[in-house]
Amino acid sequence: MDKNIYEPVKCRVIEVITESPTIKTVILKPEKEFSFLAGQFASLTVPGVGEAPFTPSSSPYEKETLEFTVMKAGRVTAEIHNLKPGDTVGVRGPYGKPYPLDFYKGKEILLVGGGVGLAPLRALFFALMHTVKDYKRIVFCCGAKTPDDYIYKGKILDEWHPLCDKLPLCFRITVDRKDEKWKYGEGVVTKTLDGLDVDIKNSVAVVCGPPIMMKFTTLKLLEIGYTDPQIYLSMERKMYCGVGQCRHCLIGDLFVCKDGPVFTYDKLKGKPNIWV
Amino acid sequence: MDTLYISNKDWESFIRGKIESRKIFAPFDFNGTLFYAKITAENADDIVYNRARPVEPLKLFLFPFKERVSPSVEGIGDIVVMGPAACDLKGLEILDRVFKDGDYKDPCYAERREKTLIISFDCASPYPVCFCELVGLHPYPEGNFDLNVSRIPEGFLVDIGSDKGRVFIGEDQKFFQITDELRKKRDEGRRKAGETIKELNRDFDFTNIENLKGACQTELWRIPKEVENCVQCGSCTNNCPTCVCFLLEDTGNRKEEMRKTKVWDSCLFPGYARMAAGASPRPTLYDRYANRLLCKYWYMVENFGMKGCTGCGRCIAGCAGKIDKRRVITEVLREKEKV
Ligand SMILES: Cc1cc2nc3c(=O)[nH]c(=O)nc-3n(C[C@H](O)[C@H](O)[C@H](O)COP(=O)(O)OP(=O)(O)OC[C@H]3O[C@@H](n4cnc5c(N)ncnc54)[C@H](O)[C@@H]3O)c2cc1C
Ligand code: SF4
Ligand code: SF4
Ligand code: FES
């Protein structure tokens, strides 16, 4: 018999890290191996409460544990925030299509992330760094509302930023509103695209963030010379099944769960209400 | 396809002979409306043959309103469903594609489908809401059945559509090969039913129905006045033979139990597409009403290579807001031409 598509793999919660006032990262140990590729997502079940889709934020090369970075936004996410080490949750997936890393080879990869949108980009970043020599350069533009809202601060600012001296890597970091201690840029994340020194013809832009941020980032990327198929957008829709049956995640005829969740902009143009 | 003839009396006793060993459902008239009920020794003479489709969509037997999917239910039994019409059978193609023939299989659907024998009927007396002819179908089944039954004054013509159907008939000696004359008689009746449907729909124009592709501007759907009468009850989606949307509910009550139950959902409900913190890609009633029709005539065409509407008219007959979607479509297409 086929495996039941709705049966989650049980996972034990190992650690819960507070990233910001509204965002936590949960580290899970699955009972059975659970592998995914950067860009794919999984459905996380809190027993007796519900299920919601998240993109793992850990490295796809990490086989022992699995991490999700979750913003508290409602019923299920609130329960995820209440998890304690030792609790049991369920994961099913992975679903969706991964980023086309083979196609990205030799190119300058522009990552643009805002808020909790940095979570999926972190998994992609780990994957890119794993074979960093394959890419011409990685330019990571990160934004958040305030310095307190920055997730992965320890990682980005203390661990990754210093690598820029040794690797073809660069960060452009901003917050909407800074405080007295903040040493980096101020302004919305699209501002980091001003004066970008990237060979756009040989580049792809990968964007993940709230709809409004994705909209303005897309417009800005088009303005500075990126073409529709060079812009990779992570789309969010209500999801239940994750496998193209329940039809909740449709953007026009496209299934976010099955055809996405990442789409190039040319695929989305002309579909109903893309930006929500 | 093999077609056999059987007399009225012999068919009736043939069916009576089957109800001992099987659960057989068929259409019965309740106050003028056809609903499915189980055939029993008492009601077997009251089965309504060849009027038009029953109120309930065929999906009810294959994709129940509410069903536990993890761990999945067990003990699915054999049933026979008599009475689905051509529009229902066409809808089966979509159910099969979604739940059985894709990369991921529903935990229960394939088994239910396998254990359900379908005996469809011709439609001789279409309802005013029927419009199969507008979407390229006819009021008589041409496939997707195990047996199909056409009533003529002399008796019943039975098409054998599958091995399952052949086995059901077995070695019964009361079935005979049909004559050309009987076939002609049936063809004539079928043609007339088709004409009736065309006549019933002469005010509606679906000729450029593929132009609904891209017709997603909210404003366009405000033009047909009646759309505002939608009360978002979900009757249209519940009754539709091709509406497959469902949600998953976590019904486990212990800390570690992960039970999931599948429940029909409706894209007309405001909560259907609502995401975290209340954001929705279809915030207005017009967006949601449009979505259902765009799904039928645009998205499903791309997803399955066929329209998601088979013209059964259930979403018109059951609409609490008395919206006739044929009129809405005709008007939207006309308005779209203008811009
Ligand atoms: C591909 C993808 C990847 C994502 N990745 C991330 C990520 O990495 N990090 C992150 O923080 N977020 C991510 N999200 C967003 C995340 O999935 C949502 O924030 C989450 O679903 C919110 O769930 P909630 O229950 O907390 O929100 P709520 O607002 O409580 O619920 C959302 C909706 O669920 C429905 N609902 C509510 N209760 C029930 C019920 N009892 N039964 C059935 N339905 C109900 C309603 O329609 C409600 O509007 C991602 C989304 C997608 C699609
Ligand atoms: S959309 Fe309406 S008419 Fe078309 S198949 Fe569904 S219920 Fe029948
Ligand atoms: S049946 Fe009519 S009133 Fe009810 S949701 Fe459908 S369109 Fe709206
Ligand atoms: S989540 Fe069910 S179809 Fe995409």
Question: Can you put this structure into words, describing what you see?
Answer:
- The complex is a heterodimer of chains A (276) and B (339).
- Chain A folds into two domains: 9-95, Elongation Factor Tu (Ef-tu), domain 3; 101-234, Nucleotide-binding domain of ferredoxin-NADP reductase (FNR) module (Rossmann fold), CATH 3.40.50.
- Chain A has helices spanning 75-81, 101-104, 118-130, 153-160, 211-223, 265-268; strands at 9-18, 23-30, 41-46, 50-54, 66-71, 88-95, 108-114, 137-144, 169-175, 185-186, 203-208, 231-234, 250-251, 254-255, 262-264.
- In chain A, a hairpin with a 4-residue loop joins strand 1 (9-18) and strand 2 (23-30).
- Chain A starts with 8 loop residues before the first strand and ends in an 8-residue tail after the last helix.
- By secondary structure, chain A is an alpha/beta fold.
- A seven-stranded mixed beta sheet of chain A has the order 10-9-8-7-11-12-15, with helices on both faces. A six-stranded antiparallel beta sheet of chain A has the order 4-3-6-1-2-5.
- Chain B is α/β, with parallel strands linked by helices.
- Chain B folds into two domains: 3-200, no CATH class; 209-338, no CATH class.
- Helices cover 33% and strands 17% of the residues of chain B.
- Chain B contains eleven helices and eleven strands.
- An eight-stranded mixed beta sheet of chain B has the order 3-2-5-6-7-8-1-9, with helices on both faces. Chain B has a three-stranded antiparallel beta sheet with strand order 4-11-10, with no helix packed on it.
- Chain B is globular and about 65 Å long.
- Chain B starts with a strand and ends with a helix.
- The mean pLDDT of chain B is 94.
- The complex binds flavin-adenine dinucleotide (FAD), iron/sulfur cluster (2 copies) and FE2/S2 (inorganic) cluster.
